[in-house]
Amino acid sequence: MTTDMIIKIFLALILGGALGMERQYHDKPAGFATNCLICLGAMLFTVLSEIMGLAGGDPGRIAAQIVTGVGFIGAGAIMRDGNKVSGITTAANVWLVAALGMAVGYGEYVWATACAAGILVVQLVLRRTLSLVEKMRHYDTVRVICDPKWTIVEKITEHIEKQNIKLLKREVIKQDNLFHVSLVATFTAHEFQKVTRELLEMPEVHSLYQ
User: Fold this and answer.
1) 138-209: CATH class
2) Which of 49, 93, 135, 189 is the most buried (most CB within 10 A)?
């Protein structure tokens, strides 16, 4: 085994491991071991594609299949729960880890290291910035299905306003012998979760959706 190959193996493991540790730390799918294996595998396939090219074959065939094949691994991390989709960031991370492995395989060590550093900056630094955005108030609509009594509608409205949340609009329609109440207000992400959770605990409320 040549010194160059040893460098590629170690660099692939280090870069893949660094990104995998970030995923593992945030308790996401495709953690440390998975990212190490993806980066190392992409690097090895890339080296093999170069060897194939020296033997007269098409060096792009294996490399092209890495991009396609890693998509199936990333798709396995994407999950849907009702209207909420999670795992897209992890899937993108898997895709980028494969790209880092390919860069290492082609000997582009500086590019690979710089891109890995950039990914970590996005995942660690910008994540904190997004947490600040979540504290900002934004318009949202809460739709509540409850017992067909105006006292219940007033109770729901008062409960929201007691949280120092400004209620901007309220609409009530009766359908299937139930009241469908649409409430437009300005919430922070934390306030929205708290209010919706408390409303669902009311026995008069049948369902709630956004």
Assistant:
1) alpha beta
2) 93
